[in-house]
Structures are given as C-alpha cells and as structure tokens.
Amino acid sequence: MKDYNRLLDDILNTVNSVKHPGSVASYIPELAKIDPDKFGISLQFVNGETYNAGDYNERFSIQSISKVFTLSMAIQSIGDKVWDRVDVEPSGDPFNSLVQLEHEEGIPRNPFINSGAIVICDILLSELDNPKEEYLKFIHELNGSDKIKYNELIYKSEKSKGYRNIAMANFIKSFKNLDNDPEDVLDFYFYTCSIDMSCVELAWCFQLFAQHGKQAADGTLFLDPNQIKRINAIMLTCGFYDESGEFAFRVGLPGKSGVGGGIVAVHPGEYSIAVWSPKLNEKGNSAKGMHALELFTTHIEKSIF
Amino acid sequence: MKDYNRLLDDILNTVNSVKHPGSVASYIPELAKIDPDKFGISLQFVNGETYNAGDYNERFSIQSISKVFTLSMAIQSIGDKVWDRVDVEPSGDPFNSLVQLEHEEGIPRNPFINSGAIVICDILLSELDNPKEEYLKFIHELNGSDKIKYNELIYKSEKSKGYRNIAMANFIKSFKNLDNDPEDVLDFYFYTCSIDMSCVELAWCFQLFAQHGKQAADGTLFLDPNQIKRINAIMLTCGFYDESGEFAFRVGLPGKSGVGGGIVAVHPGEYSIAVWSPKLNEKGNSAKGMHALELFTTHIEKSIF
Amino acid sequence: MKDYNRLLDDILNTVNSVKHPGSVASYIPELAKIDPDKFGISLQFVNGETYNAGDYNERFSIQSISKVFTLSMAIQSIGDKVWDRVDVEPSGDPFNSLVQLEHEEGIPRNPFINSGAIVICDILLSELDNPKEEYLKFIHELNGSDKIKYNELIYKSEKSKGYRNIAMANFIKSFKNLDNDPEDVLDFYFYTCSIDMSCVELAWCFQLFAQHGKQAADGTLFLDPNQIKRINAIMLTCGFYDESGEFAFRVGLPGKSGVGGGIVAVHPGEYSIAVWSPKLNEKGNSAKGMHALELFTTHIEKSIF
Amino acid sequence: MKDYNRLLDDILNTVNSVKHPGSVASYIPELAKIDPDKFGISLQFVNGETYNAGDYNERFSIQSISKVFTLSMAIQSIGDKVWDRVDVEPSGDPFNSLVQLEHEEGIPRNPFINSGAIVICDILLSELDNPKEEYLKFIHELNGSDKIKYNELIYKSEKSKGYRNIAMANFIKSFKNLDNDPEDVLDFYFYTCSIDMSCVELAWCFQLFAQHGKQAADGTLFLDPNQIKRINAIMLTCGFYDESGEFAFRVGLPGKSGVGGGIVAVHPGEYSIAVWSPKLNEKGNSAKGMHALELFTTHIEKSIF
C-alpha cells in the first residue's frame, strides 16, 4: 500500500517539475479562468483500496467525460439501437470537425466526438421524461451520493459561445439524424458537459467500467457486462479525439478526456484512475494528465496489452 | 428582329420536347409546390430590343441569384475590403458544403456559394441602417419600378427548414468571420433569397452587368465598370456551384442560377438573358434552363470566348 | 479441453451455415482463384494447449498480416526511431487511401496501412544486409521451422498489378519520406506480403504477442515486453483498416487481417487465435473470420475489456 | 502603335521595380538554375501588329502551357470523346493534388491539372503513330517554323525527380483511366512539358485561340471555332491551378501558366499576349507575369468581361 502512495507522489513531483507546453481551454470563457498548474490524481482498485495525490478533491468541469455517462444511459434505454444512429470508428479528425460528418451524411463516426454525443443526447431527449434530472440521478447513483452538481456559469458560458456545436447540431439535423429541435438537444448537451466532479468522484464512478458493470457503491449490476466491454473498447479506440492511437500506444488503457483537463481511465478487472490538470496539449487533452498516466502504466508494467 | 422571336420559340419547343430528368427543389417546402414544367425566357439587348417566350412574365423565387445583388451592394458599400472576408476561387464542392470552409478556417471560397453570401449579408448588416428596405430599394432602382416584393411564405419556409444554413452561419461565426449574431445574419440572408421576379424583370436588372455598370432604366452609372468586370468574372468561374466549369464550357457566358429554377446570364456589351424552369438537375441548376442557354449561344455562334 | 474442440466445431458450423456477402480479393489476379468457401481456425493458449478446426493446416497468402512482422523487425533494428517516420493513429480511411497522406505530407497515419508498411520496408531496406533472407529467417525463428516460403506467383501477380501501391510509394518519396528507390522498396514490400502460412503457423508465430515478447518455440525473449505492449495497442486501434473500431467493439482483441482472408488476434497473457476464409466484406476483412472471432469472444466471455 | 511600345516598357519598369516574393521552381533541378529576374513580354494583335519588351526572344521551358497543345491535339483526334475521360471543372486544389482524384475515382477534374494532362497524353499515345514527332510537328505548324525543340536536360531532370507525377499516373491507372503503361505515358508527358519557346513564339502559336481556330502563319482553319470556344472557357476557369478565379478576377482573360514562369493569355478576336519571368508565387504562377498582365488589362480597360 505504501508503494502506491509513494508512486503517486513521485508522479506528481515529476509532472510538476517538467514544463508542459499548451494552455487552458479558451473557447469557453469560464474555463479559461482556472489555474493551469493544478494537478490531482486518484487511483482506486476494484477491491476498494484508494490512493490519492495533489488536488484530488478539487472539483473541475468534466466536459467530454460526460460522453461516457450519456452513452451508458442511452444503451440502458434503447440498447443496440444506438448504433443505427452513431458509428464506432475512430475519427482521425479533431473533436469538432464537420468534414467526416459531411462525407458520412450525418452519421457521426463515434459517440465520443461532439457530433456523436449530440446524437446520443437527442436519443435521451426522446426517451427520458426529465432528461436533466435523470442524468444527474444517474451520476448520483454511480457515486452513491447526491452532492455532484452542474455548474451554471460553465453551462451559460458554453451556451453563449458554442457556435461550433450549434453548427454541428444543425448540420446533423439537415441530414435528419436528430429527432428533436437542435436548440433543445444542445441545451441538454451543454448541461451534461457542465457537471463538476473531483478526481476521487470520477474514479469512483468509473469503477462501473472496471467492475464489468457493477456499481462500486453497493455492488448491484448497473449495466450488462457485454455492453461495458463495448464501451471500454470505444474508450480505447476513440476516447482521446485524434490522439486516441497515441494514448493506447503510450498508456494502453481505455479512457476518456475532457477539455476541463480531466482524464479517467480503467484497467478492466483491476482499477480505475482519474487525473486532472487544466493545461491542454495541442490535441485538446490534459498535458500533465497524459504524462502522469504514461508514467503510471510504465511503472506498474501492466496494461491491457 | 423576327429571327430572335423565332429562335426563342424554337428553343422553347426543343426544351419542352425533351424529357429532362431531375426534380423541383424539395428542401424548401414552399418551392416544392411549383409546376415543374413551366418555362420562360427573356432576351434583352443593350440597345433595348427585347424578345420573350413562354412564361416570361411569371414571377418565381430568385433564390441564389440574390447573391449577385448582395455582392454588388457590398462592393458599393466597402469596395475591395469585401475580399478580406471572402475569396474568389471556384469551390469544386456542392453549394452547401462545409468541408472547404473548415480547411480554409472560415473564409468562404467565393461570394456565390451559401457561406460566401452569408458573409456578404453580415457585411451589409453592419453597413446599412435598414438592410431589408435598402436591399429592396436597390432592386427597385435597378428595375425602375417598385413592384418587386419578397415572398413571405418562401421566407418562412426557408427559415423553418434552413438547418444547413444555420449550421453554416454558426460555423463561420466560430471562425470569427461574422460580426453579427448568426440568427440576425440568416434572417437577412433568407429575406434576400425570397424575392420574386419574372424573367423580364431579371434580364432587365442584369443589364447592369451587360452595360458595364450603367442602369438600364435611366443610364446612370450605378457601379464602377472595373467592379462590374470583376463581378462578371466571378459569375463565370463560380456562378453555377460545381457545374460552373461545365456552364462556361457549354454556354460561355457569366451567369448565376438559383434553386427556384432561374438562370440569368450576360454577354458584356451585348445582351442579358434570363430563363426559368423549376426542375433542377443533380447539381441544383435548372435543367431546361441550362439546355436553353446552350442552344441559344450555340445558335448565335457568339460568346465571350 | 473437449469444450474448446466442440466450441470451434460449433463456430465452424455456424459460420458455414450463414451466407456471407462479399467476394474474394480480385485486384491480385492470383488471389482471385482461391475457393471462397474455405474456413480454418486455430486456437493456441500460452500454456501450449492447441485446438483446431476446418482448413487449419492449409496455407494461404498472409498479405497485410506481414505488416506486424516487418514492424517488429524495424523496432528490433532502430527502436523508437521508427516513430519519426510513421504515426500511430487510426486512419479513418480505406487501407489504400492517399488522401490523409497528402494532408499529413508523407507521414503515414500508422504502420498497418499500406503507406505505413511501405515506409517500414524502406527502413528495413536501409538497415538490413539481405532484407528478404532476414525477413524469412525472422519468420522461421518465430515458427521454429524453416518450411514457410514466399509464393512467387502471388509476388509476381501483385507486382504486375500494384498500381495503387506504386502510386503510394512514389507519393511518399515526393514528400522525402523514403530513402531508397520506390521500386526497390516495393519489390521488398510485395515480397513480405507474399508469404504463405496456415492458421496453425500464424497462431504459433503470434504467441510472441500473447507471451509478452517470448518466442513460443524455445521461450527466449525476442522483443522487449514494452514494445510488444505498443504493437498490441496499434493492432487494436489500427489492425483492421477503417473497420478497426468495429473489431475492437465486437471482438475486443488486438489483431491483424489480410486480404488473403486471414485474421490473427491475441489476448495478451492468454492465447493467440488465427482464422482464415477468403471471402472479404466491403472493408476488405474476412467475412467469416470476423464472424467466427465475434462468436468466440462472446462465448468465452473474456476479452481485454 | 507607339503607345503599346510605351505601355509594355512602362509595365516592364513597374514589375521590375517591385520586389516580388517567391522563388524559381525547385522541384525540377534544371529549372532551378534560371536567373529569377528575367522578364519578357510579347503582345500580338489578330491583325498582325506585334509589340515586345524585355527578354521576349529568350526561350524558356513552357512546362504546363503544353497542356493546351496536347488538349488541342486530343480534340483534333477524337473530338468530344475526350470528355468521357476528363472533366471540365476547376479543381480548388493544388496542381499536383491526388485528393480529388481519389474522390472522383480516377477522373481528373480538368485537362489543365497534371492528372488531366496525363490522361490526355494517354489518349494521344493510343491515337498517334509517333506521338513525340507529331507533337513537335503540331507546334511547328502553329509556329510556321521548325526551330522549336525539346530540351533534353529538362526532360531528364523531370523524369529523374518526377515522383509525384509517377504517383499520379499509377493512381489513375489503378482506377483504369489509363490504357497505356504509366511509364510510357509519363515519358511522353515529360517530353511535352520539356519544349523551349520564347514569348514571341508562344504568343504567335496562341493566335490560334485568339483567331477562333485559324492558324496565324497562313490563315488555314486548324480547329473548329466551337472547340476553340470551349478550350478558351477551360483556360479561363482552370488555367491557373487554384489561382484561376483570382486570374479571371484580376486579369479577365483565358490563359495558361507554367512553372517555367511563362503565362500566355488571349482576348478572343483581339490579341494574344505572352509574358515570362521565372520567379513563382506560392500558387506556382509567375509573380511578375501575373502582375504584368493585370497592369496590362487594367490599363487598356478591355477584357472579355
């Protein structure tokens, strides 16, 4: 046990001693205000052992990590019919590209780029009675507490400047792959991204993907193990935009990043791990976070590969 | 003079005897209701001689032909500064493609594709006090009468289904190449497209481009001849979406088409000619209209080339 | 043990009872002659247990599976310097696309598309004294026997019709990412693809990737475990052209396919498995092979995810 | 008459007094040796009046201007069947792009980009008994003398470094849009580009396009006026790679440029004009040449528009 505490401290010291290029996400004004030097990490084994370091208890905006939650909810709702509306291939383009969407006539490449997540939100909007409430409830159940909230400032900030996402939703609608009004879909989409969570909370929620569908809080089966396997596969191939191959290559774990600087990854059957540091590299992933996870899996010499 | 009357009648008979594939524009519900077999033509020489045939007096929705009017107004307003915001190259992509816009970071390829015209409308919105009124006034002055009006049904129809254009405007805004709110720009853009004109009225207005900038109604200079030359050049290279090369090749005149089925073309120093027939080919240009103009220039053995 | 024999038989019966659309690779005349209904499978656990079914002993052209061997050799030769010349991202485009190569100025997206493998062959050509001999020797050592040979008919057939690959090699050369003459590089590249192997032989060779770098024949360490982890990661994200995401999603194993109809996959630390059936789906991967592997991992309820 | 002499002198002085950015074509080693500051111009009216300035008598490599000659020969040979193999649309991509070729499955966008000219050369190779001799003879007849020759150094230089063109020819072959061996087609293609001509000779040859198909030397009809009209249209829409719209906009004449620094343009029914200066702008067109032609048409206030 002591070893892991020391390992996380070593990692913290190493990533803080290196000067990482990049900058905090600036397209969402509210996000641009965060201290770029923050760094937190939380490691949670499936047996419950937990190790933390740095700013692991500080909440940050989960942003695109929400795409894993909404996909899970959509699969809970309509099962494999999700895949009639979204593909599962890596995109090879930046997260907000409209090029492939045009070539593939409104079918997003996968559920973890913005266009895909917007379609997933459209599904939830059609299926759920109170989408926002049920989304929060889903996270609360995963987390075993109801303290996690959405951040209204972030939500409004994104909504007022989200031209690229408005473009995307209307583009998809023009191909008839949205059932609801684009404005309503985006309102829900921005809401899902605006949740604040800490590394500890994120790693805890992602036990779901480390424990083959079992909820960490009380061990009940939350999602079919076969569906968890597929979500993990998509996290591995598509979780880091056009840096997904690089992450698989260097870290070797399924995971998901957000422009708030969070990254969460899992070794199925073993552990979940969440890191946070706001400064992003040029692909839009946390610079220190990527570095920390590479140090971690290299040190423990264990990955899914 | 008799010859031209007969020539237009012959052309009318020929295009009506051929079965043209294609269909009326369906993405704007109001346009889809038009009788696809209509055909009108009006030929007007710079000396005032005029020849007509078919449904030449019936008004139709000018749609993208408006892009020539708005460009002319923008050049009147801010001159060559227009070209800081829009390029002058043919696009090689469909009229509503977002691909090139992404590669060129929000600078539309030319002012005659939708994205380009949206930027032009943004310029007018910033420069004019009452954009809609001044736009109508511009057309009234060109036409020497104030009978031409916008069609509210078309305007509302486009507005309610214009997802692709909403996507485009927000996409351009995300690259910071719109100064105004995308919604306001689109409202004006849809308005400019919703004008109803007949072949006779269109050919008369386009005398401006046949007479090197002089207004047909009273002969006053309306636009600098050097600017008219440039607008004519853009009509030749970009007036027919990704069928522009084909039109130059087969017809050999600068011109502009709209999805309402209208096409207007000019031989600078000689004549203007407008045709209308609602059925569109797969590139979005009037099928009978393209055919009629090819017959015309082949017969008179005279083009700018 | 009996269970696995029965499982493979069941899989064989199931895939043979379904009519798979698709056809045998036709662009290489010699490949087009193979009986499309053939099917073989070989499953080999890291402890040596082996189970086979169908045409598991019949040799076929490994084609793109060779890309895993040449990449392994290049990493043995120059280590991480390989990654200066080739990227590790999924391509999102067909295996022989030149589009991304143009956008990325001659740097292939990954070593498992044709362009990437051509660059890898260029590296080997520069590094090795007798590339063809050493390539065969590499496979012989992995296989613990020297019976595997290259197929001259296939080699000549590819060479005479390989216009797309000639295009690709010269295109890369124009970006200065080939050191040798394109013709020499292609000669070696076609040679590496022209090896004939059976399912049993392939699964045996790929124990290297199941056993973290140890050679199955005598247990010596052949490649660094950390490098094996990375090659496995690239197989997972890029091993099946633009169906890689689908394979990860449905099967959940690192693997590699070839247009000869072979697919080989590994569960690191557990087993390797090779299947063969010549009829290809529209993405260029064995139709029955994909089906068989999906049945297998679904049945044993065990994947890396 | 004196005015035109003075005008050309003024233009020469103006373009020489400005510092144009850019550099001599470097991908063909032999071309890189030329003095970048050279400038020549020749203006020839259809009535025979001729005005020259600068290095108008110095021969240079015509390069892509040859594409107009080969297209004319192909139309002489097989007429409109040419258009089954090549399109007539502007490309919106650099002259040596392979992207559009992939999207359009081997049909080049137009005959004035490299891929299109390679297909045209393939046609000539199939149609002519002695393609190289007949090509030279065609130019000799147009020029009324047999002094124009091909430049062996340039030819060999291109052939040894023409990787991009080899890529293109093999790519087209892979789509089955070449009948002959790619190597043979390229040999002829490089030959056609390797002709040396002066401004005077080029403007003289291009009288064909100013005189609606009549040969300047003896007035005989060389090509159908209707075909000349079409070739002129393609020169206007496609003659300057992805700067074609800009040239039409600024200069307003059909024309063709080459990476040797030559540009030749025509005003049908009026005159032909050739300029030469080796330094190229970033689009691959002569920097001084573009400038000179813009000055010329702006001054004489006369273009086809």
Structure notes:
The structure is a homotetramer of 305-residue chains. Chain A has helices at residues 2-17, 66-78, 99-103, 114-127, 131-143, 152-161, 163-174, 182-193, 199-205, 207-210, 225-238, 244-250, 287-300, and strands at 40-45, 50-54, 60-61, 196-197, 255-257, 262-267, 271-276. By secondary structure, chain A is of the alpha+beta class. Chain A has one domain: DD-peptidase/beta-lactamase superfamily (Beta-lactamase, 3-Layer(aba) Sandwich). In chain A, the strands form 2 sheets. Chain A has a 5-stranded antiparallel β-sheet, sandwiched between helices. The first copy, chain A, starts with a helix and ends in a 5-residue tail after the last helix. The B-D interface holds B 87-93, 100, 109-110, 225-226, 228-230, 232-234, 236-238, 242-246, 248-250, 252, 254, 268, 298, 301, 303-305 and D 87-93, 100, 109-110, 225-226, 228-230, 232-234, 236-238, 242-246, 248-250, 252, 254, 268, 298, 301, 303-305.
